[in-house]
Write a structure and sequence with these properties.
Layout: H1 2-44, E1 47-55, E2 58-67, E3 76-84, E4 87-100, E5 104-117, E6 126-138, E7 141-151, E8 161-171, E9 176-187, E10 193-206, E11 211-220, E12 224-225, E13 231-233, E14 236-246
Antiparallel strand pairs: 1-2, 1-14, 2-3, 3-4, 4-5, 5-6, 6-7, 7-8, 8-9, 9-10, 10-11, 11-14, 12-13
Length: about 250
């Protein structure tokens, strides 16, 4: 019995020695694997973003990514999905950096999208094209422009329209940027015309690392109508709240 006890103690000592000695090796392997994963991520050149908007359409969810494979050079392949209610949209585009310097950055992002209303089992609901997004940074000045065409009539999903959103912001400091914003919706077709024009002010607030809170308060100048042309809402205050995160 004494012999077994002595051998058991020896085995435990040996096991402890191996366990203690293996800790630096395991840590080194994990550290190397982490560095390899980071290197692969940097090599992929991919970045992503998440966004939520709450406005007259309800609460909307956006997720997007920008991919920069070597064969595209300075260009990037951009994708995003947009979800509101039972409607989902997939967009594909090509990021085109026109100017990229320390004092000035200008990027064009043309995109094409297809939308599905999953409450109706009859295929696509909307063609969202053409789309053009413009991003300009010049010192403390930031400008962003959206131009989007919505073609719903080929899918019997509603009227066609053209939408634009434009704002220019001045960075007061590292946390707050403020400026004017204009949004317009133009109906296409025989009975088209300016159906919405919102003019107001916007503030972007730093909301922690890589997070931005956007607040837009505007005045709707056009009365809103239902499908039969009856006025359902007077002009008045409207707006949007946005939470944007990138990585």
């Amino acid at each position: 019995m004494k012999t077994y006890t002595v051998w058991l103690v020896r085995l435990l000592v040996v096991a402890c020695i191996f366990a203690i000695g293996s800790v630096p090796m395991v840590y080194a392997d994990a550290h190397e694997m982490g560095e390899e994963d980071m290197a692969e991520e940097e090599a992929s050149g991919a970045s992503g973003w998440f966004r939520t908007d709450t406005d007259s359409l309800g609460t909307q969810i956006w997720v997007g990514a920008s991919h920069s494979p070597d064969f595209l050079g300075s260009l990037s392949f951009d994708t995003d999905i947009y979800v509101v209610g039972t409607f989902g949209e997939l967009d594909l585009g090509l990021g085109i950096p026109v100017v990229a310097s320390e004092s000035l950055e200008l990027t064009f992002l043309p995109m094409v999208g297809i939308g599905f209303d999953y409450a109706a089992a009859d295929g696509p609901s909307s063609l969202i094209a053409p789309q053009l997004f413009t991003y300009l940074t010049a010192g403390s000045i930031y400008f962003e422009s959206w131009i989007q065409g919505f073609f719903n009539s080929p899918f019997d999903y509603g009227d066609d329209s053209l939408y634009t959103r434009d704002f220019i912001l001045y960075s007061v400091n590292d946390t707050i940027a403020i400026g004017p914003q204009v949004e317009a919706t133009i109906g296409l077709g025989d009975e088209g015309g300016l159906s919405s024009l919102v003019v107001g002010a916007r503030a972007n607030v730093g909301y922690g690392e890589n997070n931005t809170l956007g607040i837009f308060v505007g005045f709707e100048t056009q009365p809103q109508e239902d499908d039969e042309g009856n006025e359902i809402e007077q002009t008045g205050i409207t707006g949007r709240m946005t939470l944007f995160r990138e990585w």
